[in-house]
Amino acid sequence: MSGLVLSDIKNFEAIAQLGTDVVSLAQGALRIGGVDQAIKNYVKEILDTDLADYYSPGLGLPELRAVLAQQLSEQGQCSVSVRNVMISHGSMGGIVTVLRAVLSPGDHVLLPDPTYVSYYNLIHVAHAQPISVPAFVNSESGWIFDIEVIKKSITAQTRAILIANPSNPLGICLTKVQMIELAELAQFHGIYLIIDEVYENYIFEGEFCSATSYAVTNPFVIRAGSFSKNFGMSGWRVGYVIASEDIINLCVPIQDIYLGNPVAIAQYAALYALKNPQLLVQAHNAVKQCRAITLAALEPLNERGILKFEKPASGLYIFAKTKENDATELAREILHLAHVAVVPGRGFSPRTSGYLRICFARDPQVLALGLARLTKFFKQPVDIETILLSAQKFEQKLVQEFAVQQESR
Fold first, then answer.
1. Predicted local distance difference test score (pLDDT) of residue 259
2. Local confidence band at 388 (pLDDT 50, 70, 90 cut-offs)
3. Prior bond of 166 cis (ω within 30°)
4. Domain 8-28+279-408 matches domain 37-276 at the CATH topology level
5. Nearest Cα to Cα of residue 23 among 387, 308, 324
6. CA 97, 100, 103 angle in degrees (round to 5)?
7. What whole-number distance in Å separates Cα of residue 147 and Cα of residue 133?
8. What global pTM score does this model have?
9. Exposure of 181 by Cβ count < 10 A (0-12 exposed, 13-18 middle, 19+ buried)?
10. Is 30 in contact with 316 (CB distance < 8 Å)?
């Protein structure tokens, strides 16, 4: 199959995992201490029974789908039925199943870029063609989403739009007005709007508008989600798709071919996580602290124009512009000389080759070590203890800045 390439995210992460003294700030996995022990204890209880020993239903465990439907209904102030829910092999498994269900060979899928690099492969697997469109614009006020670019890019071959909200790698969210306009645009043209919401729990500034309510009222809106980021369960591979009953019915036989059925034991772990929402709060607060640590350490580089970036309002990443036209070689030097893995920006968009993506969802001590090495590499050294001590003050500054922004609106 042509067009498939392993992303720089996976390449740099693989090299980092081979090293014994490499701090990985590359792959977007939540590494803040592992899955909560309470989840693991519950899984141990399940393993003492035969509940996870057999095939689970193709749509996923009925109880998991029911609890997920109930919680999403409450959060979105809408009515999500279990018939709108399919459990998948992570968000990626759900999206590729959806693409195979709604696309025909040669169809075009619009990717508002910068975008998550693996979307290109997902579309190729569905025998369709990804079309990169520069809908995220780097303006004087920072990155903004321009829906007019999407409108102008729709052709007779366009069959879908695929977008992450919050954005990976930009860390910005679609507004409610933009979400409504996109949903109406999709319905007007009869194309599918697929929204990947894996970072929904990591909103630090502003409001988040989920696509859930649109996915159950608009037959052309499909929403994907995951337990990988929210609960740090990336290794358990549990995600889900929310869509009309017709779309879900199209997806089931395709998922059956690819997957057989979602992994039972992982679904029980996800079920326990859903029933214990305090775990979401713990993960959010931990990542928020990591964000403050990273901003405190890298702000001197930002001020000097060495790594230019905006404070991410959401997500797990700093997306920084370097002085290079192509930062790939710079990322290699950082990996081999500073023993820190980051991701070059060329895969996210042709326009962001000179950027680096830095994941801050790490244990604070590990993160501080990586940041100390990174600042030393750029000859603006900040030691680990200083980074950790200044983070609390920096977080207070962020809170104050956000309060001022809200008052001025």
1. 84
2. confident
3. yes
4. no
5. 387
6. 140
7. 11
8. 0.92
9. middle
10. yes
Best CA proximity match to 56, nearest among 269, 261, 257: 261
The strand ranges marked E within 115-229 are 129-133, 136-139, 142-145, 158-164, 192-196, 221-226
Between 3.20.20.100, 3.40.718.10, 2.40.50.140, 3.90.1150.10, what CATH number should domain 8-28+279-408 receive? 3.90.1150.10
70 touches 275 (CB < 8 A): no
Cβ count within 10 A of residue 127 = 15
Whether the CB-CB separation of 365 and 29 falls below 8 Å is answered with no
Structure tokens at 239: 């995600």
Q: Given this model, what pLDDT does residue 266 score?
A: 96
Domain boundaries, the chain: 8-28+279-408, 37-276
Judged against a pLDDT cut of 60, whether residue 193 lies above it is answered with yes
Between the CA of residue 193 and those of 140, 218, 356, what are the distances in Å?
Answer: 28, 10, 28
- If you count them, how many residues does the chain have? 409
pLDDT of residue 261: 86
Task: Give one word for 196, left, alpha or beta, with left for phi > 0 and alpha for psi -120 to 50.
Answer: beta
What own/partner pairs with CB < 8 Å and gap ≥ 24 does 248-257 have? 248/59, 248/83, 248/84, 248/85, 248/86, 250/101, 250/102, 251/86, 251/97, 251/98, 251/101, 252/58, 252/59, 252/86, 254/97, 254/100, 254/101, 255/58, 255/86, 255/88, 255/93, 255/97, 256/58
Torsion sign (Cα): 56, 57, 59, 64: negative
* Angle, helices 245-259/90-102, rounded to nearest 10 degrees: 110
Q: What phi and psi, each to the nearest 5 degrees, are found at residue 321?
A: -85, 130
pLDDT in tens, 81-116: 999 999 999 999 999 999 999 999 999 999 999 999
Report the range of poorest mean pLDDT among 54-58, 81-85, 130-134, 271-275: 54-58
Point out the least confidently predicted range of 163-172, 190-199, 366-375, 384-393. 384-393
Provide the 10 A C-beta neighbour count for residue 190: 10
Neighbours of 403 (CB within 10 A): 10
CATH number assigned to the domain covering 37-276: 3.40.640.10
221-254 per-position pLDDT tens digit: 999 999 999 899 999 999 999 999 999 999 999 9
State residue 300 phi and psi, 5-degree precision.
-60, -35
